[in-house]
Amino acid sequence: MRTIDEMSVNALRILAADMVQKANSGHPGLPLGAAPAAYELWANHMNFNPADLNWENRDRFILSGGHGSSLLYALLHMFGCGLSKEDLMNFRQLDSLTPGHPEYGHTAGVEATTGPLGAGMSMAVGMAIAEAHLAAVFNKENYPVVDHYTYVLGGDGCMMEGISSEAFSLAGTLGLSKLIVFYDSNRISIEGSTDIAFTENVEQRMEAFGFQTLTVEDGNDLAAIGKAIEAAKADKKRPSFITVKTQIGYGCPAKQGKASAHGEPLGAENVTALRRTLGWDSDQAFEVPEEVYAHYRELAARSADAQAQWNRLFDGYCAAYPEMKVLWDRHFNGDAAESLAADEEYWAFEDKPQATRNLSGVLLNRLKDRIPGLMGGAADLAPSTKTYLNGEGDFCKDNYAGRNLHFGVRELAMAGIGNGMALHGGLRPYVSTFFVFSDYTKPMARLAALMKLPVTYVFTHDSIGVGEDGPTHEPIEQLAMFRAMPGFNVFRPADATETAAAWYHAVTVKDAPTALVLTRQNLPQLSGSSRDALKGGYVLQDSGKETPDAILIASGSEVSLAVEAKEILAGKGVDVRVVSMPCMDLFEQQSQAYKDSVLPGDVRRRVAVEALSGFGWERYTGLDGAVISMKSFGASAPAAKLFEKFGFTVDHVVEVVENLMK
Question: Which stretch is the leader sequence (predicted)?
Fold first, then answer.
C-alpha cells in the first residue's frame, strides 16, 4: 500500500477502536478487519457525493453486519458526510448521531437500518431490483440516467442467517449484475471459531445461487480488493460475491483472530498496543493527521464530480425526453393523495357481497395506472392474494421493466426486499402472503416500521374463515402482534369502501408501513360505510338515542355480524350503536374529542367482536364490557361451521349484549 492509503485505512481502524473504547461498548472486531475493503471501495470505486447524500444515481452501500457501525461512522466522518469528531465521541450515547447499529433516517449517509444479521443482504437485493427496474423504465440510448451499483458488506453471521440464502437465491435467479456482496470472512463468531457450527463451502453455495464468486486471500491487499471489484463490475449477467479473508480485531496483538475482539472494547492497554502495531503516531484519542483528512477531501471531491457529470447528463435527458421527466417526477416526487381522493372511479363498487381480497385486487389494478411506481408481488400466492398487476409483465432477467415480482416461497426475504425497494426510492413496493404466514415477515416488517418506510403488506385469509385448511393456516394471534408494533398501521376492512380507504392510506402515507388484512369469504357492502375509515374507527350505524344502550365494536368480517345483531336487539327494545374499527392505529392518532364522540365514556356496555385473539380490545371495552374473540387455535371445517362453533353468530352477539344489559 502507498503510505497515504495505509494511513487512511488505519485512520478508520483507530477511530473505530476509539469510539468503542470511549463508549465502553461496541464491536471493534469487524471494523479492524474490514477497514481496507471499505476504504478501497469508498475511495476508488463507489460513486456518491458527500454534499448530496440523496443523489438518485448514487451507488448504495449497506453494512449488513450492523454491529460494525463504528466503521461506517468513521467512513462518513472522514469523507465529510456530516458526522463531526464530537459525533464519533458520542458513539452509542443517548440522542447521538452515532447509535450502536446504523439507523436510516437518523444518520445521514446510512442507507438502511441494520441490526438483525442478514437483513442488510435482503435489503441490498431490493435496492438492486429497484435499480434494474428503474433503469429499464427510464434509460434511453446515450442517456443511462439510472446506472449504479448496490454494495453490501456482511460477515459469517449474515451468511448463516436463512434470510441471506432466500434473498441471494432470488438475486441469482434474476441475474442482478449490479449487486456486489462483500463477505468479511474472518471465521469467528461470538462463541468462537465458526467451525463449531458453520463449515459449508460458502462460495460453492453462492455459485449454485447463480453468483460470480471471487476471493481476496489477504484482506489488507488493496490492489487485490480493487481488482476483485472491477471483475465484479465486468460481469454483466450475474451478481457478484467477493470473499475477503480478514482477521477479526486486526492490529490488536491480544485480540487479533479471537472471538473476544467481536463485541467488547479492546481495553485501554490494547488500544495503545493497536496504535503501536499500526504505526500510528498519536496517542491522543480521535486524533487524525491533517494530511489524511486532506486525502479524504480529495477523494470526496472526486465523488462530487461524478454527480456533476450525471447532472449534465440528466439535463440533456430531460430536454430530449420531456415526457420522461414528467414520469420521473411521478416516480420520485409524486403525491397521489389529492387526485385519488377526488377520483370517483377509484371509490366506486357494486353493491354485492365480495371478499375483501378480491376487492383489494380490483383496487390494486386501478392504482397501477394512477401510481406508476407501484410494484410488488407475493410469496408464490398472487392468484390467492389477488396481487397481480394485469398487463404489467413479470420482473425477470429478460424483462426488468415488469412490475410483477415473483418472490417464490420466501416470505422473510420478500419483506426485506420490499424494504430495500422503498429505501432505494422511486417505487411504492407491496408484498403479500397469507396472514398466518405473516409470522415469517415480522422481523423485516419491524424494520420497516423502525425506518418509517411506506411498504404495503397484503395479508389475506385473515381468520378462522380460512376453514378447511385448519389451524395451521388460520391466524389467531397475528393481528394483535402487528397492532402491538409501533408505527405500523394495520387495516382489517369490512367492505369495499373500507378496503378502498385502506389502499388509499397505504399508497399516500409517507412515513409508515401499512398492512391490509383481508378475507377469503364474501362480505356484504354495509350501509353507513364511509371514508371515515381513514380515521381508524367511526360510527357505522348509530342508535336512535342520544346515549346508546350499548356499543358494538368490530372489524372486518365481524362488522356485518354487529349490524345484524343491532337489528335483532332493536326488536327487543335495545338500541345500540355499531362502530367499525378497521385500524386501531389510526384511531389512536385522532383527537381525544373525536375518540370520545365515537366511544363516549358514559356508555360502559361495550362488546367487541373479532374472530381472532381478543388481546388489546380491553382498551375499548373496559371493565364493564365483553370481548367475543378466539381463545384457542382454530379447527378444520367449513368456515360457516367454525364461526358457529366459536361463537361468531348473530344470536351469540345478541346474547352477550343482553347479559350486559342485565
Answer: none
Q: Is 473 marked as binding a ligand?
A: yes
The three cell numbers of residue 323 are: 415526457
- Report pLDDT digits (tens) over 351-389: 999 999 999 999 999 999 999 999 999 999 999 999 999
What are the pLDDT digits (tens) for 491-529? 999 999 999 999 999 999 999 999 999 999 999 999 999
Please give the pLDDT value at position 304: 87
Question: Any known ligand binding at 522?
Answer: no
Output the CA–CA distances (angstroms, integers) from residue 27 to 31, 101, 419, in the order listed.
8, 10, 26
Any binding-site annotation on 188? Answer: yes
- Is pLDDT of 1 > 60? no
177-215 burial, b at 16+ Cβ within 10 Å, e below that, comes to bbbbbbbbbbbbbeeeebeeeeeeebbebbeebbbbbbe
Q: Which of 186, 167, 158, 325 is closest to 243 using CA atoms?
A: 186
Torsion over CA: 283, 287, 293, 299 (sign): positive
Name the CATH architecture for the domain at 3-305: 3-Layer(aba) Sandwich (3.40)
* CB within 8 Å of 605: residues ≥ 6 apart: 549, 550, 551, 624, 625, 657, 660, 661
The answer to whether 67 is a known ligand-binding residue is: yes
pLDDT in tens, 474-493: 999 999 999 999 999 999 99
Mean pLDDT of 598-614: 98
CB atoms within 10 A of CB 390: 9
- Which one of 3.40.50.920, 2.30.29.30, 3.30.230.30, 3.40.50.720 gives the CATH number of domain 535-661? 3.40.50.920
* Element at 240 (helix H, strand E): strand 240-245
Cα separation, 491 vs 510, whole angstroms: 16
Q: Where are the domains positioned within the chain?
A: 3-305, 337-523, 535-661
In sign, the C-alpha dihedral spanning 584, 585, 586, 588 is positive
End-to-end CA distance of the chain: 86
Nearest to 162 by CA among 477, 444, 546: 444
Q: What is the mean pLDDT of residues 99-126?
A: 98
411 is a catalytic site residue: yes
CATH of domain 337-523: 3.40.50.970
The model's pLDDT over 628-652, given as tens digits with 9 standing for 90+, comes to 999 999 999 999 999 999 999 999 9
Task: Indicate the length of the chain as a whole number.
Answer: 662
User: Residue 162 annotated as binding?
Assistant: no
Per-residue pLDDT band at 2 (split at 50, 70, 90): low
Confidence (pTM): 0.98
Per-residue pLDDT reduced to its tens digit, 257-282:
999 999 999 999 999 999 999 999 99
Secondary structure E strands in 506-646: 514-517, 522-523, 538-541, 550-554, 576-580, 606-613, 626-630
Phi, psi angle pair for 433, to nearest 5°:
-165, 180
| Radius of gyration of the chain, Cα coordinates, nearest whole angstrom | 28
Which residue is catalytic, options 411, 474, 498, 610? 411
Integer CA distances (angstroms), 295 to 4, 13, 17, 298, 495, in order? 8, 16, 21, 5, 62
Q: Do domains 337-523 and 535-661 have the same CATH topology?
A: yes
In the chain, % of residues over pLDDT 70: 100
Determine whether the annotation assigns residue 384 to a binding site.
yes
Rounded to an integer, the average pLDDT of 199-214 is: 98
